[in-house]
Design goal:
Distance between the termini of chain A: 40 Å
Number of strands of chain B: 11
Structural class of chain B: mainly beta
Number of helices of chain B: 0
Helix content of chain A: under 10%
Oligomer: heterodimer
Largest interface: A-B, 26 and 27 residues
Strand content of chain B: over 45%
């Protein structure tokens, strides 16, 4: 069973703080990892992709991947109220096209 | 703005109606998808169309019928839906099929469907 696990939250952080979102996955053969942000009533928006172990930074966002431990995380620095959304972790398991598996999402609230 | 365009944005239909959702992508991507998303749940894959081949999630009822007129268009025909089919329907595309490395999904804005 291919699984992607996220803490559902809700996670609340004060404005300006670092928000840390975590995701674990079950298949060691996975090679592609994505973070999507989804505002209420809207469609998911790709914010980060990562394929190699280590950190990848894009503005205030940093994705971290550790394949040995089978986890991927997303750090949001200097959190803003506009970052309040549900963050979906998605993992591309090897094999057929249907094997992009989403986690259940973490709801983040940034308090002004 | 997204490069995957879905119409309509909202749709209300009765259980005896026939309607269609439309999706077009302008990125030259070779794979397109339909997802269904219920409130507070992750997207669930319904159909995949890549390299002129349609793949179906076997759990999707036959009242949903995909059609791919060409590589940039993917329609979803709806017939005799049930109230529990009310959801956000998302179209997505990717450069390569999802089994390929480095091929994220790009979602359209979705169609909010309500079945009465």
């Amino acid at each position: 069973q291919k699984e992607v696990e996220q803490n559902s939250g809700p996670l609340s952080v004060p404005e300006g703080a670092i928000a840390s979102l975590n995701c674990t996955y079950s298949d060691r053969g996975s090679q592609s990892f994505f973070w999507y942000r989804q505002y209420s009533g809207k469609s998911p928006e790709l914010i980060m992709s990562i394929y190699s172990n280590g950190d990848k930074e894009d503005g205030r966002f940093t994705a971290q991947l550790n394949k040995a431990s089978q986890y991927v995380s997303l750090l949001i620095r200097d959190s803003q109220p506009s970052d309040s959304a549900t963050y979906l972790c998605a993992v591309n398991f090897p094999g057929s096209a249907r094997q992009l598996t989403f986690g259940s999402g973490t709801q983040l609230t940034v308090l002004p | 703005d997204t490069e995957v365009t879905q119409t309509p944005k909202h749709l209300v239909m009765g259980m005896t109606n026939k309607k269609s959702l439309k999706c077009e992508q302008h990125m030259g991507h070779r794979a397109m998808y339909w997802y269904k998303q219920k409130a507070k749940k992750p997207p669930e894959l319904m159909f995949v169309y890549s390299y002129e081949k349609l793949s179906i999630n076997e759990s999707v009822p036959s009242r949903f019928s995909p059609e791919c007129p060409n590589s940039s268009l993917l329609n979803l025909h709806l017939h005799a839906l049930q109230p529990e089919d009310s959801a956000l329907y998302l179209c997505a595309s990717s450069q390569n099929p999802l089994g390929s490395y480095n091929s994220p999904l790009h979602f359209g804005n979705g169609t909010r469907l309500t079945v009465t």
